[in-house]
């Protein structure tokens, strides 16, 4: 179970919600064409995450205006934000702060309306309203709004980026794409009925594609922790207060750990002795006490989206172009992520 309160019952419902959101969103693409896959999946990830985690009230408010506010808030997530004081009058900082205020005001209204109604709904908003600190103090509206914003943005960058890279890897390897489509029929039925959570767990090849995408294109290059006590490593002492960093991008490509390390090979995960048992050879979601609590939701979300897309479309690279990596952003997004698609015939 996730610390967010999500359990198997929630995931079963989430699969249905995400499938419906994906179908509705991509119907606007039509039968064929070329589109920016990253932009589309970034919007869809926001919508599906809100539907699953926020609830109907907040999801119903996610119109184009709110989507732009999230984009402005997201624009403040940059190298400058890490290196420079947040009060500097940079355009991206001003947009970020304005968007933050406006989104919080929206969440204030929703929270106050729920409190006044006395209605009890099984969603994250209600969980936060009912939650208390160890001393018994309840969360105030400002804290709830901040957590709702953080909940949505925490995995938005990583999931949209990973979903996009996964699509391009499958578009580049047509045989792999067809194997994933065949797996849909084998696991779910020839007539491809609506997805359910139990079938999703049986999509082993699709999951291996996701794992290999996370290995070769981990969305975050560096993970940092502060040393709270003196630590010794390789003969060096790390003083209290200093940062300790690990890079998934490096760990996932170590030549003494990964066979044919630069190749996209989902079937490598069929090997039970993968990475020779190295403890931190594979860390896309971090490790230890602060491992990402959204990992299970991310797998359900991305697998459901791509299960749906594989049923809807056949994908190709545009003139053989496979995106290069944009290293200028905190999350390593694909450059010029335009993909070619056409409606799949059963």
From TrEMBL:
Name recorded for this polypeptide: Uncharacterized protein
